[in-house]
């Protein structure tokens, strides 16, 4: 009897959770967040996914006002020297207007290598999820429960970015102030989406492609080339 | 004036059918006859043809003189932008980074993209085809190279390239500011 009740409870909880997630899914109408004054700042997390992802992200971010989007957290995969150099270049190109404490670095274990099998992917995804939960959820909660690790998270693939979306969603489900997420599909995607884009699309607040037909029949937001 | 310095690049990919074709005797002869004086081949993860006759160092870089052309081979390049700046024509595997860097070079240089058809999910071919249709670059398969090179390196083609627009930084900034409630 007790086990039955417990089981019922678990099923009920799963239903409530599923409904909560469903109810929270961004409608695609790109809601804007509450108004900020032009002198306000906005904390930002930037995922540098290696290779072409990193270079496109570097270009995107270089267009932002660094005095407005501060502090900046750069998330990248362990051992990705190229992304680390990209951060150095981004920050130094913006020059004297930024202080060195206006950004920080967060290296994470890589969730999926190109060509890795689904089984071993799920294993290494787990190795990524735990430190991500630690840095993106637990530490910010201990620091100040009202503030998420960043006001906005910018991603453009590959796989590891799905882990960031997953962990960011925990606060959303708990109805705490949460990180808004924007995904920018690569300039290289003309008529089809990448795997990571398809994966995270329902869960991000803004989903943008750089070619009008890239989203397929389910049209995505398109504002021309961004890089 | 037709180009004298030609860069062939495959980024960090493995594309031996392109690099071996470019470094084959018939293609080298063709390039030399078309006025190329300096050929730079960044060959990535592939191996060089064993009979090329150019000694390479530990990093896989070397130079040699073939058919009157100065041929420079390198496995990878840290400074791709500098390479493009030094070149007067570029043949690329079609990575989006190399396409953007080349098309934004000023003054503009002709770009020929050879998509790697051995890749399974080949969205790079889609990008190349679309950009080719819009007139920004020329697309070729490996087998068509010998036939397309004279056109690609000709003055008419170089003159007729459609200029690629500069990046409009206000677009992404606008999207972000709008999303985060800055007006």
From TrEMBL, chain A:
Cellular component terms (Gene Ontology): nuclear membrane; UDP-N-acetylglucosamine transferase complex
One GO BP: dolichol-linked oligosaccharide biosynthetic process
InterPro entries registered for this protein in UniProt: Oligosacch_biosynth_Alg14
Coiled coil: none
Membrane topology, from the record: Single-pass membrane protein
Keyword Hydrolase recorded: no
Pfam families: Alg14
GO molecular function, one term: N-acetylglucosaminyldiphosphodolichol N-acetylglucosaminyltransferase activity
Keyword set, alphabetical order: Endoplasmic reticulum, Membrane, Transmembrane, Transmembrane helix
Compartment list: Endoplasmic reticulum membrane; Nucleus membrane
Keyword Transmembrane helix recorded: yes
Top-level taxon: Eukaryota
Annotated function: Involved in protein N-glycosylation. Essential for the second step of the dolichol-linked oligosaccharide pathway. Anchors the catalytic subunit ALG13 to the ER.
Family of this protein: Belongs to the ALG14 family.
PANTHER family listed in its UniProt record: GLYCOSYL TRANSFERASE-RELATED, UDP-N-ACETYLGLUCOSAMINE TRANSFERASE SUBUNIT ALG14 HOMOLOG
Assembly notes: Heterodimer with ALG13 to form a functional enzyme.
Protein name per Swiss-Prot or TrEMBL: UDP-N-acetylglucosamine transferase subunit ALG14
Organism of this sequence: Kwoniella newhampshirensis
Gene that this polypeptide is encoded by: ALG14
From TrEMBL, chain B:
GO MF annotation terms: N-acetylglucosaminyldiphosphodolichol N-acetylglucosaminyltransferase activity
Source domain of life: Eukaryota
Function: Involved in protein N-glycosylation. Essential for the second step of the dolichol-linked oligosaccharide pathway.
Pfam families from the UniProt entry: Glyco_tran_28_C (PF04101)
Summary of subunit composition and partner proteins: Heterodimer with ALG14 to form a functional enzyme.
Family from the record: Belongs to the glycosyltransferase 28 family.
UniProt keyword annotations, A-Z: Endoplasmic reticulum, Glycosyltransferase, Transferase
Gene assigned in the entry: ALG13
Statement: the UniProt record of this protein carries the keyword Endoplasmic reticulum: yes
Gene Ontology biological process terms, A to Z: dolichol-linked oligosaccharide biosynthetic process
Protein name: UDP-N-acetylglucosamine transferase subunit ALG13
GO cellular component labels: endoplasmic reticulum
Listed EC numbers: 2.4.1.141
Principal subcellular localization: endoplasmic reticulum
Uppermost EC category: transferase
Catalyzed chemical reaction(s): an N-acetyl-alpha-D-glucosaminyl-diphospho-di-trans,poly-cis-dolichol + UDP-N-acetyl-alpha-D-glucosamine = an N,N'-diacetylchitobiosyl-diphospho-di-trans,poly-cis-dolichol + UDP + H(+)
Annotated ranges, domain Glycosyl transferase family 28 C-terminal: 5-169
Species whose genome carries this gene: Kwoniella newhampshirensis
Transmembrane segments: none
């Amino acid at each position: 009897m007790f086990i039955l009740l417990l089981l019922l409870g678990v099923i009920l909880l799963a239903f409530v959770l599923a409904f909560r997630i469903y109810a929270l899914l961004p409608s695609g109408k790109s809601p804007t967040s509450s108004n900020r004054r032009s002198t306000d700042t906005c904390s930002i997390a930037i995922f540098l996914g290696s290779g072409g992802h990193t270079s496109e992200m570097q270009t995107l971010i270089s267009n932002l006002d660094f005095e407005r989007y501060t502090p900046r957290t750069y998330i990248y995969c362990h051992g990705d020297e190229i992304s680390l150099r990209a951060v150095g270049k981004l920050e130094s190109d913006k020059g004297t207007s930024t202080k060195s404490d206006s950004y920080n670095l967060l290296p994470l274990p890589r969730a999926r290598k190109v060509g890795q099998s689904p089984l071993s992917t799920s294993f290494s995804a787990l190795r990524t999820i735990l430190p991500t939960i630690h840095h993106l959820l637990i530490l910010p909660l201990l620091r100040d429960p009202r503030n998420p690790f960043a006001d906005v998270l910018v991603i453009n693939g590959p796989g590891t970015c799905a882990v960031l979306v997953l962990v960011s969603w925990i606060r959303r489900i708990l109805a705490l102030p949460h990180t808004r997420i924007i995904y920018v599909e690569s300039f290289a995607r003309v008529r089809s989406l990448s795997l990571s884009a398809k994966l995270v699309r329902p869960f991000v607040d803004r989903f943008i492609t750089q070619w009008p037909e890239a989203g397929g029949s389910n049209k995505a937001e398109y504002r021309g080339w961004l890089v | 004036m037709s180009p004298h310095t030609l860069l062939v690049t495959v980024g960090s990919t493995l594309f031996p059918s392109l690099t071996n074709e470019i470094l084959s005797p018939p293609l080298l002869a063709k390039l030399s006859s078309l006025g190329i004086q300096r050929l730079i081949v960044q060959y990535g993860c592939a191996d060089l043809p064993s009979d090329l006759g150019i000694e390479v160092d530990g990093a896989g870089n070397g130079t040699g003189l073939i058919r009157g052309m100065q041929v420079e081979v390198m496995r990878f390049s840290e400074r791709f932008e500098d390479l493009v700046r030094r070149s007067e024509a570029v043949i690329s595997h079609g990575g989006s980074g190399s396409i953007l860097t080349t098309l934004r070079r000023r003054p503009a240089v002709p770009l020929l993209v050879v998509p790697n058809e051995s890749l399974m999910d080949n969205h790079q071919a889609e990008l190349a085809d679309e950009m080719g249709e819009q007139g920004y670059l020329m697309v070729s398969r490996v087998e068509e190279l010998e036939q397309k090179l004279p056109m690609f390196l000709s003055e008419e083609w170089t003159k007729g390239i459609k200029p690629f627009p500069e990046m409009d930084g206000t677009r992404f900034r606008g999207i972000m500011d709008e999303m985060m409630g800055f007006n």
